């Protein structure tokens, strides 16, 4: 059993809608295009699919004609990212990508300042917002740093290994989501927002083509928010094992440890050191898969229950309510209503 989609906290959809509300955008149109009901939006503990989040972001881009989502000091007209991307696709190396990317935005929009610095064996791509008060929930910072990492990584055909990521704001309440976004430690209350990585990576050649870019842009931002979550070593190994399991419900820490050639005690200690737990990982995976399957109306809830390894639908219903505060049927009906 495997799943390529990871759910996204409702926090991010709520922040997007708050920004849209401040701009006076039509909320019913936005939620309708995303397939998110108001009742679901009002529950901060729920999660949505990457497809729903991507459709919401695209709708806000279109209605607001602003790729900075109303969170910048100046509107960034829709299409500017594509214009920049069509220039940098012809770059020879990652160094050229970051220089051209920064130069482009520094010329066309005063909402931010971008700069690539190299000191010794470290490269730092930094971003400073000229009016950070326009981004009170930090979503623009989070999204743009995510973009400055994932798009260049796509261009060179490999993930850029980050040493750390830094933000100029305090650690947020949704800090746990950062492990899904950035494959490295996060530092807060820093002078700027930045990505720090090995300077040797700047020599990596660009391998993508203009034809591949056209498809990439058509899918945006879906590909940027559906990358597999980044986890520490043993957390990742456990998740990989669970995703491959044909009997997720019957997976235990004992048989998982055996499959990973570890003792149960060693696996518990390794997960604890990484801030994880076996049951938490198993429940999180089942929750994300349930949300994904519930977004597909053709799959009966009884089938979802079996797919996730529950002995009976009532057991799945109890578990889903514990995870999200909602009944599976209520969640599906609310998602269908798009009100």
From TrEMBL:
The lineage of its organism: Bacteria, Pseudomonadati, Pseudomonadota, Gammaproteobacteria, Pseudomonadales. InterPro entries: AraC-type_N, Homeodomain-like_sf, HTH_AraC, Tscrpt_reg_AraC-type_HTH. The keyword Membrane does not apply. Residues 236-334 form the HTH araC/xylS-type domain. Keywords: DNA-binding, Transcription, Transcription regulation. Signal peptide: none annotated. This is AraC family transcriptional regulator. Transmembrane segments: none annotated. It comes from Azotobacter bryophylli. SUPFAM superfamilies: Homeodomain-like (SSF46689).
